[in-house]
């Protein structure tokens, strides 16, 4: 059951993040942030996602008593950030780099309240099995890879590529629920796990 507390703005177009917040019983209004997401020279993947989440949260102007939640996810292999594929060839290159290897997924979550701005970052390690060229082509012919970092969705058909993960599954989807719940509680935003009278 969703709690009717629309005091939280989600600064993201991601339907997956909205669905994950709904799992927590948190209702949001969506106001996507429009910022430049180009990595800075020499920036580490962790620093990058933390900066982008922070800038997204700062880019949205809420009502005086509202909070803004923003997040950014990066798929990383050999220290390189794999963004959303812009072409079929880019998608092929990403899947080939991930095939048969372990990669990292970093998600940073920023929560801006009237009092402060807090940022957390979680890392999950994901192992892909070896992928066949033909199945990569069939996957790339679907709608799934094109708005996903690293050209795959663990919660969809792309989950069949994953042998194992070490860390938070929801982090790979785009919002680590354990850490996000802690941020929300710190800002006084209740979830379905909290006592509506004010206790956790």
Automatic annotation (TrEMBL):
<dbReference type="InterPro" id="IPR003697">
    <property type="entry name" value="Maf-like"/>
</dbReference>
<feature type="active site" description="Proton acceptor">
    <location>
        <position position="72"/>
    </location>
</feature>
<dbReference type="GO" id="GO:0005737">
    <property type="term" value="C:cytoplasm"/>
</dbReference>
<keyword id="KW-0963">Cytoplasm</keyword>
<comment type="similarity">
    <text>Belongs to the Maf family. YhdE subfamily.</text>
</comment>
<protein>
    <recommendedName>
        <fullName>dTTP/UTP pyrophosphatase</fullName>
        <ecNumber>3.6.1.9</ecNumber>
    </recommendedName>
</protein>
<keyword id="KW-0546">Nucleotide metabolism</keyword>
<dbReference type="GO" id="GO:0036218">
    <property type="term" value="F:dTTP diphosphatase activity"/>
</dbReference>
<comment type="function">
    <text>Nucleoside triphosphate pyrophosphatase that hydrolyzes dTTP and UTP. May have a dual role in cell division arrest and in preventing the incorporation of modified nucleotides into cellular nucleic acids.</text>
</comment>
<feature type="site" description="Important for substrate specificity">
    <location>
        <position position="73"/>
    </location>
</feature>
<keyword id="KW-0378">Hydrolase</keyword>
<dbReference type="GO" id="GO:0009117">
    <property type="term" value="P:nucleotide metabolic process"/>
</dbReference>
<feature type="site" description="Important for substrate specificity">
    <location>
        <position position="16"/>
    </location>
</feature>
<dbReference type="GO" id="GO:0036221">
    <property type="term" value="F:UTP diphosphatase activity"/>
</dbReference>
<comment type="function">
    <text>Nucleoside triphosphate pyrophosphatase that hydrolyzes 7-methyl-GTP (m(7)GTP). May have a dual role in cell division arrest and in preventing the incorporation of modified nucleotides into cellular nucleic acids.</text>
</comment>
<comment type="similarity">
    <text>Belongs to the Maf family. YceF subfamily.</text>
</comment>
<feature type="site" description="Important for substrate specificity">
    <location>
        <position position="155"/>
    </location>
</feature>
<dbReference type="Pfam" id="PF02545">
    <property type="entry name" value="Maf"/>
</dbReference>
<dbReference type="InterPro" id="IPR029001">
    <property type="entry name" value="ITPase-like_fam"/>
</dbReference>
